[in-house]
Amino acid sequence: MARVYCGHRSKNRRPRGVDLYTPPLRKNPMSEAQASGKSGKVVIKNIGLLLSGNIDRPILDADTIVVIDGVIAAVGKAKDCDLAHAQTVIDCRQTCLSPGLIDSHVHPVFGDWTPRQNQLGWIESTMHGGVTTMISAGEVHLPGRPKDIVGLKALAITAQRAFDNFRPGGVKVIAGAPIIEKGMVEQDFKDLADAGVTLLGEVGLGSVKAGNEAKEMVAWARKHGIQSTIHTGGPSVPGSGYIDKDVVLEADADVIGHINGGHTSLSEQHVCELCEKSSRAIEIVHNGNEKVAIAAAQAALQLKCPHRVILGTDGPAGSGVQPLGILRMISLLSALGNIAPELVFCFATGNTARIRGLNCGLIEVGRVADFVFLDKAQHSAGSDMLDSIKRGDIPGVGMVMIDGLVRCHRSRNTPPATQVPIIE
Question: Cα-Cα-Cα-Cα dihedral of 395, 10, 102, 242, to 10°?
Answer without folding.
Answer: -90
